[in-house]
Every structure is written in C-alpha cells, then in structure tokens.
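User: hey, got a sec? need Malic enzyme folded
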Amino acid sequence: MGTESSDQKHPQFGHLPLATSGPQECALTGNALLRNPYFNKGSAFTAEERETFKLHGLLPSNVQTLEEQVERAYKQYCSRQDDLAKNTFMTSMKEQNEVLYYRLIQDHLKEMFPVIYTPTEGEAIANYSRLFRRPEGCFLNIYDMDRIDDNLAQWGAPDDIDLIVVSDGEQILGIGDQGVGGILISIAKLVIYTLCAGIHPTRTLPVVLDAGTNNKAFLQDPLYLGLPKPRAPTQQYNTFIDTFIRSARTHHPNAYIHFEDFGLANARTILDKYTPHIACFNDDIQGTGCVTLAALTAALHITRTPWAHLRVLVYGAGTAGTGIADQIRDAIAVETGREASDAAAQIWCVDKHGLLLRSDGERLTSAQASYARRDEDWTHTPHTDLLSIVHAVKPHVLIGTSTQPGAFTEAVIRGMTSHVPRPVIFPLSNPTRLHEAQPSDIFKWTGGKALIATGSPFPPVEHDGETYEVAECNNSVCFPGIGLGAVLCRTRLLSPALLVAATRALAAQAPALRDPRRGLVPDVTEVREVSVRVAAAVIREAGREGLSRVGGIPEGEAELEGWIREQMWEARYRGLELVGRERASRVARGEAGATGSRLARE
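Assistant: Yep! Here you go:
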C-alpha cells in the first residue's frame, strides 16, 4: 500500500484543529490533485485513491511505498553534480511533493542539512535572480505600501496562518545584502520549522520586505528581480516595517512572527520595539542566544558554578554576541532573583576596539550600551588586549562571535585555565574557517579540562585515549521548539521567562549530562523529540504568566507531550477523503500554504 497503514497518533486529541490523526479532506481530483504539492503522493496513491480521485491514466500502474519513493529520489539527488544543483533539485521536489521532500531530508538529515540550509542556501540566495523559475511567498514593496494590506489579505482567513518568517535581506547568512533574494531565507527557515518541529507547511507564510538593496552588483544587474534602488532612508524604512506589522496583525492575528537576517542597525531596534506588543522572535539575536545559553547551562551543571558567581566574557559584540549576552543576563536574573541590570554586570563584552566602555558613547549600539563598563575600573588595566582582559576578568566562560580566526590563542586559553579549574570555551564564529580556535587545540592547551561548543560541526576529538564529541550550537535544535510552543498555546508575547524556560528544557536534553564525553547540546538528528520538550516548557511557562490564549491544555507531562505530538505535522502519507468544493476548507481546496496559494492564483 502506498499510504501508511495507520493514521491514528493520539486519538484522544483528534478533535483539535491542528490534529494529524485520521484522513484529510481533499476537494481536488485528477491533474489538479497531482499539481498540488501538499496532497500529491505521486506513485504512492493507492488503488482506491486512484479510483476515487480520477487518477487512472495519469500515473504509472505500480503502486509504491513512500520508502521506495525516497530510495529513488535519493539516487536522483546524489546524481547532481554539486551542492547548488542538489539544492535546486530539492526546491523542485518541494514544489511537487512536500511529504516526499521532507521525508527524504529526514532520512538523510546530517547529509542534507548543509544543502537545504547553510552554507548552500546562501549560494542559492546570492543567485536568486539568475536561478528564478517561479515565485513562492509574499513580496512586499516599500514604494507600494498602500498595497500591503491587500497583499497580506490574500493569504487566507485570520485563523489560517500560524507562523510568518520575514526578512529584509540585508544581512543574509554572513554574505551580506541580498535584497529580494531574502525570500529564500524565509522559505528555508519555514522548512526547518516543519522538519524539526512539525509546523504545518500549509499554515506558514514566508515574506520578504523589499526596501531596495545596497549591493552594487545587483543594482547594475538587469536580471535582478528586486527594486533596483539603494535601500530606503530610515524614516521610510521604519514606516514600512510598522505598516507590515499592523497589516499582519489585522489579517493574521494569531501568527507568531519570526524576524530573520535583518541588518545590524535594524535587527535589535525592531525586536525591542515589537516584543512588548506581539509574539515575535529574532533568531540571529534570541535563537543564537538560547542555544548558547543551553550549552552553558549544561556546562554549569558539570562545573557546578553558581549563577550568582558566574563571569562571562563575550568576544565579538555584534548582533550575535549581544544576543547571547542578553540571554545569559536574563537567565542570571531569573535564577538569582536579581534585576537584569545587576545581572549584566557579570558579563564583559569586547568588540574590535576592545572592552566596551561607557566613554565609547555614541559608538555603542543600544544593545551594547548596557554592557559598557566604568572607565575608572580600567584606568590601570589594558582593555584592548584579549589576554589582559582575561587575566583581569578571570572568566568562567569565554564566548567567541568575532569572526576573527585564531583569536583564542594558546596564551589566552592557558591564561583562562590558570584562573578556573574547568573553563567553558565556545568559539562560535561561522563558517569553520572563522572559528576563534580549533577544538583539538583547546583540549590540548587545557589538558582536556575545557567544556567546548562550536558554531559549526567539528569531528570528535581524541585526548588521552578518550574520544570527545564537540557540541555544535546549532540554532535549529532551539528555535523550532520555541515556535511550536508559541503557536500551539497562541501566546500573546514571547517574554524572557518563556525563553529561559525553553533554554532549560533544551539544556536538560544535553548528552553530556549523561556522559561527559558527549556534547553540551543535542545533535540535530534528535531535534523533533527535543522540540516536543522545548515546546512543552514554553507552553507551561506561558500558562503560568497568563500569556496563553488556548484553553484545555493538559497539565500532566505525558498528556501535554501527547497533545503536542498530535498537532505536529509529519512526513507521512495520510488517507484522503473526497469532499465537495462547496463545503471544503482552503486546505482541502489546495489553496493553503505559500505554494498552494500561488497555484490557486495561476
């Protein structure tokens, strides 16, 4: 049989709007059904389905299983000559059969993750206008703001969208301003949400805010698809953002909004402005911060360092560095019962000019200002040299987000080890060539005492006859679960307490807590189970804070996790039930989701 034998997961929760047990209603037949990527099963349509949905003569005779389709698709994937060609192949598959697309990635996750996301997705984004075949997602134009309301209205009723990922394309995956190509990072993030946390693909919306581009190559390229103008001035840009947010809240009031790859000058300002009013998230700031904090939390369990006494040195005070500092500050405040401003005093931040000082004044960004130290405390201590700062601060934790390869020298690492028995060292800069230190060197220089997490995958390290896993601080083990929890409980806001709860749940899954030779964060291959635990923590905390807008959420741990799993979309073929168009939902009519809405308009 082409359809999996059981459509029942957690039948006691089968009444929920997002339930995934039982058959799906479908109003499409014939070629219209085969063209819809959400319902299309290709050669896996059963004999009964071929009869009911008028597919005879449109498909080869042999009915195959999803597993057989995956085997064939993987061979086709492997035949592509390079990673960009493989990325393009996967994009084409997603437009044809979403279940097969996600199942193929799921079965080969470690191999395919770098192809569907970073670094290969960055290459696809850079070549967006030249590789363009057909649009997917919502394109909003800063010079056509009067249309934003109508543009967002066409993506369904108020209850149809659970999650919006939006980018302005200014700072994409470390490759800079990519303009309208930013739509692909919004799409890629939504793929990860579905893959890693079961967010329903028909209930998401990728958006790009086209405010122009300062990429000179694009401005001179006649094939560039975005606005061929420099980025708009600040006041006009701010109006654009506000118009988008207001329209999104009007037409999709339940949607959780994920900001992605905004420029350094705008990312923090936007997040700070809207966080008190809507449920929103910035992965570059909060996602990086949460996964790093989770690794740190696991490390502190091992080193037994109290939060109240913790000293953290962040080397690299840009968006990622200050985002990490913020999450650590909030965790210290929650764990110790102190004010956030007091907790910030336990964190020292260094940028390319040296330690952040109050005398830096206007050079400091709003995110950096709260970490600036008093100048008089550093009058007699060098504050531009990392080694001198390490000796002065005596940090328990050293975090690198500087993109300065080799910045954590042997002298710096040995200096840190002289002050604390088990240093926690996280060289997080991406890609691998920009790491502040190699894990093998850190182990050697600390005599195997260091607890390490990195920003890119590294092979295990051999030391004194033992093999140690190197944890990767991959945001994808964190942000999907946070989003899942926010979506399922319809939280009004994403408060710091919810993020701390999510981080605790992620830290509790650290393999190193059970075996010190393993990683400080779970591997991405375990992410769906991790997402359940993270989502449960977010939902429970939202309930405690009075932020949840959903009633009847189970209180028991097992029941809550079953409730969550029932609402997580899976890459499996479910049975189809034919319904008439007059009573069909948008999903049943094949009009939901970014691809479905596009097909409905064609």
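Quick note: The two ends are 33 Å apart (CA to CA). Let me know if you need anything else on Malic enzyme.
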